[in-house]
Amino acid sequence: MSAAQATTPEQPDQVAARNEAAVRDAFANWSAGQGSVFDLLSPDITWTIHGSGPVAGTYNGVEAFLQRGAVPLTSRLARPLVPNLHAVWAVGNTVIIRFDAASTTTGGHPYRNQYVWIFRMENGAVVEAEAFLDLVAYDKVVAENQPRQP
């Protein structure tokens, strides 16, 4: 029997622990201003923002999500969002994250929101994501603030 045949498949709790660690590390780096949780996203991700309003919907591909889902908000913030991680739950390939994030808008007003993200991960990358947040607060920032100048 070869070494490859003797290798046992990874158990669900091992997968969950690995995925949770990757997400926690990404949030720690994001909080420290050394990267973003978006670094975990697969190029072919399917990201759904639940709710109603202009940004709600499903985005296919990382570029579609970033340009149409994230940039409308982040371009109107004077500095990057700073997340405050409250909890991470992982079961197999599913990771649920609850966090707050805050910044200041380009108009000088505070922005705060609460988030729950549900990730489905494969081989360390997020392939599907669902996001729950206060879309009224998101839409207000987009409507009332000008994007930063490049």
TrEMBL record:
Coiled coil: none annotated. Pfam families: SnoaL_2. Transmembrane segments: none annotated. Residues 23-128 form the SnoaL-like domain. This is Nuclear transport factor 2 family protein.
